[in-house]
Amino acid sequence: MPAESNFQDVTSSTIRTRTMPQLSGGSEKPRRWIKRYRTETAASAASVMSTVTAFPLDSVKTRMQTYPYAGALDCIRVTYKSEGIRGFFRGVTAPLASVTLVRTISFSIYQRSKYVYSDWMKQHLGFCPLEHVNKNGAYPSLGTIACFGAAGATAGSGITFIACPFELTKLSAQVSVLMANQKNADPQKQAIALSYHNKGTFKTLANIVKHRGFSGMYTGLNLHLLRDTLGTGIYFATYESSKQLLTTFSGKDAHKNPIAVLAAGALCGIVSWALIYPIDSVKSIYQRNALMYSKGQKVPVPKIQFFRRDMYRGLGVSMGRSAAVNAVFFSAFELIKKRINAMKEDE
Q1: How far apart are CA 347 and CA 339, in angstroms?
Q2: CB atoms within 10 A of CB 275
Q3: Strand, coil or helix: what is 3?
Q4: Percentage of the chain with pLDDT > 90?
Q5: Separation of CA 30 from chain center
Q6: CA 190 to CA 175: how far, in whole Å?
Q7: Measuring CA to CA, how many Å separate 124 from each of 118, 119, 121, 152, 314?
Q8: Please, which pLDDT band fits residue 13 given cuts at 50, 70 and 90?
C-alpha cells in the first residue's frame, strides 16, 4: 500500500527519471549534488516529516485493529495512561528507516511501468494514456485509469518484499505492551509475548528471527502482497484521475494548482484505505498472532470478511492519518524543492 502510500506528484514535469551522473572524487560540490537530485532530496525529507507527524495515528489504528477498544478516544486514553506519550511512537524507527528506500523504489517502478503500459496501449489499442492526461480540458477515461492502476499495482507488488520486515517490526513494537499484558494467555505464548516487551527496532527484529527463523521476517507476506498490490493500484488510479478532474475544473495547469495536488493526494489515500481495509486488518491480526508462536508452529489465518464491522476497527483513524500524511508530505515536498531551487551551486 501506499504504502501508505503517500507519494509526490508523479506526473509533475519537475519529477523525471534521471541518469545517475559519474561522480569523480569529490569534483561535485554538495550544493550542486543536492540541486541535481532536488526531487529525491525533497521527497526523502518530506517523507520523514510526514511519517513522524502522523505516526501516532498509525499506532492508534494498529492497536484498534488488533485489540478491542470502545473507540479511538478510548484507545488514546488507555495508551497514554499505561505508556505515556512514548507509547504513540513505539516502532517509529522502522518506517523512518524504510520510508526513503521503499518510496524511491516504488516511485521508480511506477514511473517505468506507467510508460511501458502507456506505450503498449498506444501500440496495440491506438490510445496513449499519458498524451491524453496532458491535454488541457481532458477528463479521466477507462484507459487512463487502467494504465495508472496497473502501474500502481506493479509498484505495490514490487515493494512488498522490502517493506514486509519493516512493517512487521513496527507492528510488533506498537502492540508489544498489549501482548505482554493480555490475560488468560497460554503460558508459552505469554513468555514469547513478554520477550518483545520494550525492545527497540533492531532488537525486535532479532527477536522475531530467534523465535520464528529468518523466514519469520516475512510473516504475512501473502496478505501484505495482496494489500499492497490492490491498494497501490487503487491509490495511483485515484490520485491521477482526481488530480486530472480537479485541474480541469479549475482551468489551471496542475503545476500551478497546489490545492488540486493536495486534495488528490488526500483523496487517494482515503479511497484506497476504505476499499482494502479488511485485508489490512487480517494482515495485522495474523502478524500479531504469529508473534506468539515459535518456528514450525502453524498459525491460523483469519478470514477476510468485507462489510463485517470488526474488520473496520480503526478505519476512521486510518483515513484521517492518510489525509494528514498526504497534506504534510505534499506541502513539505513543494516547500523544500522551492528552497533547493533557490540555492546557488557555488556558494
Answers
A1: 14
A2: 15
A3: strand
A4: 24
A5: 29
A6: 13
A7: 10, 9, 5, 21, 44
A8: very low
Name every residue whose Cβ is closer than 8 Å to that of residue 84 and which is 6 or more positions away in sequence.
Answer: none
| Amino acid found at 24 | S
Cα–Cα distance measured from residue 89 to residue 151, given in angstroms and rounded to the nearest whole number: 33
Question: What is the predicted pLDDT for the residue at 2?
Answer: 52
Q: What is the DSSP letter of 147?
A: H
Higher pLDDT, 298 or 175: 298
Q: Is the dihedral of CA 258, 263, 269, 275 positive or negative?
A: negative
Distances (CA, A) of 98 to 44, 137, 156, 207: 11, 38, 15, 19
Number of helices followed by number of strands (H, E) in the chain: 11, 0
pTM here is 0.74
| DSSP line for 49-95 | HHHHHHHHHHHHHHHHHHS--SSHHHHHHHHHHHH-GGGGGTT-HHH
Pair 144, 129: CB distance under 8 Å: yes
Q: Select from 79, 34, 81 the least CA-distant residue to 59.
A: 79
CA 241/CA 222 separation, integer angstroms: 29
Q: Which three cell numbers stand for residue 187?
A: 503460558
- The residue type found at 190 is Q
Residues 6 or more apart in contact with residue 38 via CB below 8 angstroms: 337, 340, 341
pLDDT at position 57, please?
Answer: 85
110 compared with 233, residue with greater pLDDT: 233
CA distance 227 to 211: 26
State yes or no: pLDDT of 26 exceeds 70: no
